[in-house]
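User: I'm curious whether this sequence folds into something compact or stays loose and floppy. Could you predict its structure so I can see for myself?
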Amino acid sequence: MIKKFNSIFVTMFSLGRIGFLPGTFGSLATVIFLFVCFHILNISSNIILIILVITFVYSFIAIKNYTENNENKDPREIIIDEFIGQAIPIYLYEISHGTEKTMDQALIIYTVCFILFRFFDILKPFPVSYFDRKHKNSFGVVMDDVCAGLYVVLSLICFMILKSLI
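Assistant: Here's the prediction. I'll summarize afterward.
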């Protein structure tokens, strides 16, 4: 039973089993999920934070159990790490802008976050590449996407600083 749950969890309801671009589909599903939570259902950011933290913590256990007897410790179908990494910039954007944003502004920022996250997740600049290559376990699987998400945050902060100077 727990193996079945972990399989559903790490593949984001088998979305990761799509034959092509599973990480991109995982990131896109995260963007849609968070947009619905924040802008359609108006769920409190504190509740969303709790969901994200539980997902983050449990992902280490679920990935470890899922890959336990597998030689490949980072199979393509695991995309819960994309969920975590993609959620970081979107969540920080939402809590930093409170209620002052329009839905159009949110759609633009969500799209930018999606593109930037996929860029950094695929390009793997340091330390994303470090975690990807040096930690062949659940920690490395999750932390490379966390670093890619933080790169998106850093990029958006740099953009806002440059925009304020112009």
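Summary: The chain has a mean pLDDT of 92. DSSP finds seven helices and no strands in the chain.
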